[in-house]
């Protein structure tokens, strides 16, 4: 796929029917999930754009995924496969066993450099039992509607599902119900089996709080209290990743569209450990959102995780999100910030 000629020919000659068969094969193999397949088909208007999106998605899965794609293409349309001269390209060589991909290499669980005392333990079994909480508020009693929030919700759900998380999802909650949702999540029966959790809240906000749909504040401090070792021993020694898309003040920069339109064990252990948080902006500042595409923060998180989650640990992924802002046109007006990081080891998501 690195060869531009091959990419151009692939895009121009793969039919809509061929694409659908390739997507079905990839879902069957476990390389893509249903949300990824639907995203490729529904978020792109033309056949060519769908094929381009498919190619880009496969490239992010690595060389093995590329080779498997060619193997499937040969079975689906041998004439097209032969006319593309695929076998002359390095990425198409060394055919792979599809069962080997889906059963053992998908999560790189045997990589020695990711094992050991410096990394949080992750196994294929623990990945299959992952659980995450996603709360998205779009409409409010008195505050403006967060147009584009549905885009963030969809992208974040897809990303978490791709990483192996069963997503517990809520929309448009009051401040009180946000607290109740977190309390319920802290007692989720799957927590004892998961290797980690994500908690993602997207709403209007202020310093130290996010807004419920009733425009009352939910203090983000309560997230840490409800999921700490004292109140949620099932998550002891497990990474707890907190992502909050919300303003933390009303200091605006350039005119875009601001996201805020109104100003237990027997041993002795620390009760708050193994957390890491990424907030969409620094204290007292505004977080920006495009009404058509969603927030820049969620867009960059999804882009970075899709590209690097198979090789970088969570702290490095967050750093790359911040770097993406620095290199963009928005670096001068918005900068995410890591907060309350108490991870004692590296946490590799190991999604592929």
UniProtKB/TrEMBL annotation:
One of its GO terms (molecular function) is cysteine-type endopeptidase activity. Transmembrane segments: none annotated. Residues 269-351 form the Caspase family p10 domain. The keyword Heme does not apply. Residues 7-88 form the CARD domain. Belongs to the peptidase C14A family. Residues 128-251 form the Caspase family p20 domain. Keywords: Hydrolase, Protease, Thiol protease, Zymogen. GO terms for cellular component: AIM2 inflammasome complex; IPAF inflammasome complex; NLRP3 inflammasome complex. One of its GO terms (biological process) is regulation of inflammatory response. Pfam families: CARD (PF00619), Peptidase_C14 (PF00656). Coiled coil: none annotated. The active site is at 204, 247. This is Caspase-5-like.
């Amino acid at each position: 796929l690195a060869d531009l000629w091959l990419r151009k020919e692939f895009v121009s000659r793969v039919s809509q029917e061929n694409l659908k068969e390739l997507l079905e094969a990839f879902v069957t193999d476990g390389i893509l999930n249903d949300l990824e397949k639907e995203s490729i088909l529904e978020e792109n208007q033309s056949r060519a754009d769908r094929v381009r999106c498919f190619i880009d998605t496969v490239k992010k899965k690595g060389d093995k995924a590329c080779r498997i794609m060619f193997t499937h293409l040969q079975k689906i349309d041998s004439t097209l496969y032969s006319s593309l001269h695929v076998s002359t390209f390095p990425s198409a060589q060394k055919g792979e066993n599809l069962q080997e991909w889906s059963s053992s290499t998908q999560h790189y669980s045997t990589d020695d450099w990711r094992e050991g005392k410096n990394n949080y333990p992750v196994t294929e079994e623990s990945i299959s039992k992952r659980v995450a909480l996603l709360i998205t508020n779009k409409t409010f009693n008195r505050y403006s509607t967060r147009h584009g929030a549905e885009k963030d919700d969809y992208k974040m759900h897809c990303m978490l599902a791709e990483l192996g998380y069963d997503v517990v999802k809520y929309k448009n909650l009051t401040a009180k119900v946000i607290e109740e949702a977190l309390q319920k999540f802290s007692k989720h029966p799957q927590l004892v089996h998961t290797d980690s959790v994500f908690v993602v809240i997207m709403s209007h906000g202020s310093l130290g709080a996010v807004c419920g749909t009733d425009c009352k504040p939910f203090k983000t401090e309560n997230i840490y209290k409800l999921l700490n070792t004292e109140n949620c021993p099932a998550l002891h020694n497990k990474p707890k990743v907190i992502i909050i898309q919300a303003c933390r003040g009303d200091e605006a920069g350039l005119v875009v569209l601001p996201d805020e339109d109104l100003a237990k064990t027997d041993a002795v252990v620390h009760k708050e450990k193994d957390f890491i948080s990424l907030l969409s902006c620094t204290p007292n500042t505004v977080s920006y959102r495009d009404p058509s595409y969603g927030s820049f923060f969620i867009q960059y998180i999804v882009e970075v995780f899709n590209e690097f989650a198979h090789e970088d640990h969570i702290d490095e992924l967050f750093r790359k999100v911040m770097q993406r802002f620095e290199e963009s046109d928005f670096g001068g007006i918005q900068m995410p910030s890591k907060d309350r990081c108490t991870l004692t080891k590296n946490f590799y998501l190991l999604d592929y």
